[in-house]
From TrEMBL:
NCBIfam families tied to this protein: PRK00055.1-3, RNase_Z
Keyword Transport annotated: no
Residues reported to bind Zn(2+) 2: 64-65, 210, 268
InterPro entries: RibonucZ/Hydroxyglut_hydro, RNase_Z/BN
Family as reported in the entry's similarity comment: Belongs to the RNase Z family.
Subunit comment: Homodimer.
Residues at the active site: 64 (proton acceptor)
Catalytic activity, reaction form: Endonucleolytic cleavage of RNA, removing extra 3' nucleotides from tRNA precursor, generating 3' termini of tRNAs. A 3'-hydroxy group is left at the tRNA terminus and a 5'-phosphoryl group is left at the trailer molecule
Keyword vocabulary terms for this entry: Endonuclease, Hydrolase, Metal-binding, Nuclease, tRNA processing, Zinc
Record-given protein name: Ribonuclease Z
Coiled-coil residue spans: none
EC code: 3.1.26.11
Amino acid sequence: MKLTILGCYAATPRTLTNPTSQVLEVKNHMFLIDCGEGTQVQLRKHGIKFSRINHIFISHLHGDHFFGLPGLVSTFRLLGREKELHIYGPKGIKEVITMLLKLGDSWTNYPLRFHELTSLDSEVIFEDAKVTVQTIPLNHRVYTNGFLFREKERERTLNIEAVRYYEIDKAYFNTIKKGKDIVTEIGEIIPNRELTFDPPKPTSYAFCSDTAYHPSIVPLIKEVDCLYHEATFLESEVHLAKKTKHATAKEAAEIAKQASVGKLILGHYSTRYSSLELFRKEASVVFEPVELADDGKSFHIG
């Protein structure tokens, strides 16, 4: 997995910072997660092809997380897109986008598929042969979901030396990689574990923004390779975090610690602070390793 941060600051865009948007590349997918203002410009700036984006996941209907979406939908039309575009987000997102298209008499010339979410429980919203995406119900001022991206278990790896030793025909290779034992012509059973190696552990990524401190998500994100968790405030402003249903850097670290994640990435910073290192310093007391998201920064996961 490769994660590219297009924007990771709270509230309003500034000349040097952008609201939330990121791209996750996994198994030939280019998933767009949230779409704040300026997302199109950031996509171009970082050389990400618009045509590779087929699935967009919107966490909630606060402007700094989806105001860039109408423009992106329209740009796809101007670029002559023909492929389907799937948008996953809270109930109401279809009404917002289609109303703008209707009033501007600018319907898309490609299939636009909305998947509106209402469940308060986690649910799988996308699945193919290699990846699943499920919601992470969060605790914010409006209906909000995070998203958990998981690779599926890969096939086992052939032990070529063992396969040659037992003189197994290539016709059985796919069966072996799927974990099946082999029965020879004389009835001897060769256990699969003697013919294969364990596959690499599937990689996982959890996106959690925006939310108050919400420990009930811990079982869902247990031992994920990487957790992106909002850290709008520092503990010195915990009263503002509680009032606005956001989290502090310390609270994000507490979630990471309880879930035993591989790595924590902080983001969604309030612009009131002079240095992002303040967030890392506060979180590192509770959990390590801690990374700081920043516009244009990329992370390799797994």
